[in-house]
């Protein structure tokens, strides 16, 4: 069986694959245009190099392993027609994003930004306001793969988790799940409100003035989903009026966040430039997904993890 | 049964105690010198107001609930002689200290200090070096109540934990435990080295040049135990020579850390002023210990949590 990798991996990662799968021939570091594709049953790719022309040349191709979360730019109709299986790395962002969320929550709770400023002044001041996370309540907007991973970690810290989605269907690592509809009634309980919602017709503008007014004055609001969840003007007002305590914002209505935005300099705002999912271990994680699926494939088991429905496109 | 509280708690905490224990008479907010003590079976105190004179007046006293971790300043011999039971709140620091440790680890991993500086310059720069905690290895010096709580949380993040103590005896939430003796051989594996060791004859100066040379150049070293674990000169050299990646220091040989210390301004050092255990929830946690024990006491169960051996003094 021949496998082509069209994206770069490290030498030791190549060696590991070859050691783990002695029966498989791997070709690494190849540009898809420079390879005669007839021999490959499997192509591992970021997806961007798969065209209908490539599919026509890849006469043995049975499985496309796509090392990205989205597959919307691929020629899915042609792939479906040829009966090629597609898997992706859905969920690959959950570890770095959940670590980012906890990093911000704990850093603010333990007053690390305040301590950093004291250090610059060589100031030994123990009268710093620090709080405990244990015993608090978090409301997680979007308890999917990423939101549930945040929930899992929060529960390990002794936090009560309330998931909030459109359906109200149960979600893992949520003590309970509520619907978007009931959100405003439950916001007063939350010490932390964190969104990892995608942008859809139902999430756009979901948070309005009334939602921020319903939150605790001490609430920490975090947005790692999409910037159109809330209008920047509404957010700025809530922060300036002290309707909430602090906001951590990784996503914005307009990105990059314009220099003239008031958000940059509000003292109760932490800005990060849409990097919550970044990780030095992306390839490593992607290879974990691949290795697991490749073991199944080798045994003839076609129930791969993260299969894409090529008709539906997700 | 009568219980005297000689330290201050909030109104709602008093009400809760009275609601939870309808059969018990509580007296709150009393100075011990202004109270006739004969009626109290139980006194809840920080410990500093218990003298032999108080013990002589407290003729019904059977149990001293001490809301601090140390009891070394109390007249233990007299207490032992009268057969009075003493319990303390050992372990009360584990939650804030473990949250502090995770806050620093995650904050550095997700580059929050770098992002904070970028925000000040209104700089949208996504090329920030961020790493994942999952899959890394932590060596925990002192896997007692606090160290094990750090281990528990690290394991939830997918970190391998190696405990290190004098005996090498197993400890909770450690994938393995090693002895002080074998430390230098295992340091090369650790991405994180965190100490919560107390100051004893065996821990004083435990970390020497060779230990830092054995660590990864990328290692994060954290000290939340006692400053005499390592000489400041050794630490400064290790940090300046790049023998380790970063240090988070909450404790120092001399406290407050003198303004002339080089540690204040090294770019790979985070200084905090011995506040890792601070918490806004101290009394709340202490009352949790008390309530649990009081339930037992009421039932005649004398196997209280955190009993002090008044002969040994701990």
Describe the protein.
The structure is a homodimer of 314-residue chains. The first copy, chain A, is α/β, with parallel strands linked by helices and 314 residues long. Chain A folds into two domains: 2-92 and 280-298, 3-Layer(aba) Sandwich (Rossmann fold); 94-271, Rossmann fold, CATH 3.40.50.720. The first copy, chain A, has helices at 11-20, 52-57, 76-81, 94-109, 112-120, 145-156, 183-186, 209-214, 232-240, 282-298; strands spanning 2-5, 25-27, 42-45, 63-66, 85-87, 137-141, 160-165, 176-179, 192-195, 220-223, 246-249, 269-271. Chain A has a seven-stranded parallel sheet, covered by helices on one side. In chain A, α4 (94-109) packs across α6. The longest helix of chain A is centred in the C-terminal third of the chain and has 17 residues, at 282-298. The first copy, chain A, is elongated, with a radius of gyration of 23 Å. The mean pLDDT of chain A is 95.
How many DSSP helices of chain A? 10
CATH second-level architecture of the largest domain in chain A: 3-Layer(aba) Sandwich
**Can you tell me the number of structural domains of chain A?**
2
CATH class of the largest domain in chain A: Alpha Beta
Q: What does the radius of gyration of chain A come to?
A: 23 Å
């Amino acid at each position: 069986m021949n496998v082509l990798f069209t994206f770069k991996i490290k030498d030791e990662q190549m060696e590991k694959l070859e050691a783990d799968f002695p029966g498989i021939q791997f070709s690494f570091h190849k540009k898809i245009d420079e390879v005669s594709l007839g021999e490959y049953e499997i192509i591992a790719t970021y997806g961007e190099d798969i065209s209908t022309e490539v599919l026509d040349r890849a006469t043995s191709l049975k499985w496309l392993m796509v090392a990205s979360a989205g597959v919307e730019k691929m020629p899915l109709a042609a792939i479906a027609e040829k009966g090629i299986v597609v898997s992706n790395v859905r969920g690959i962002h959950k570890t770095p994003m959940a670590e980012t969320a906890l990093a911000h929550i704990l850093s603010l709770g333990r007053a690390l930004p305040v301590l950093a400023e004291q250090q610059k002044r060589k100031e030994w001041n123990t009268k710093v306001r620090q709080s405990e996370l244990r015993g608090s309540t978090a409301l997680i907007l979007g308890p999917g793969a990423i939101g549930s991973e945040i929930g899992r970690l929060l529960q390990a810290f002794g936090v009560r988790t309330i998931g909030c989605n459109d359906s109200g269907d149960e979600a893992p690592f949520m003590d309970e799940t509520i619907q978007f509809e009931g959100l405003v009634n439950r916001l007063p309980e939350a010490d932390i409100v964190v969104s990892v919602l995608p942008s859809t017709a139902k999430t756009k503008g979901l948070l309005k003035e009334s939602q921020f007014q319903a939150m605790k004055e001490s609430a920490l609001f975090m947005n790692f989903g999409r910037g159109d969840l809330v209008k920047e003007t509404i957010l700025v007002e809530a922060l300036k009026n002290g309707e909430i305590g602090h906001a951590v914002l990784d996503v914005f209505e307009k990105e990059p966040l314009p220099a003239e935005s008031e958000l940059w300099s509000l003292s109760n705002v932490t800005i990060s430039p849409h990097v919550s999912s970044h990780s030095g271990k992306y390839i490593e994680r992607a290879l974990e997904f691949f290795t697991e699926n490749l073991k199944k494939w080798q045994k003839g088991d076609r129930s791969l993890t993260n299969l894409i429905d090529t008709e539906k496109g997700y």
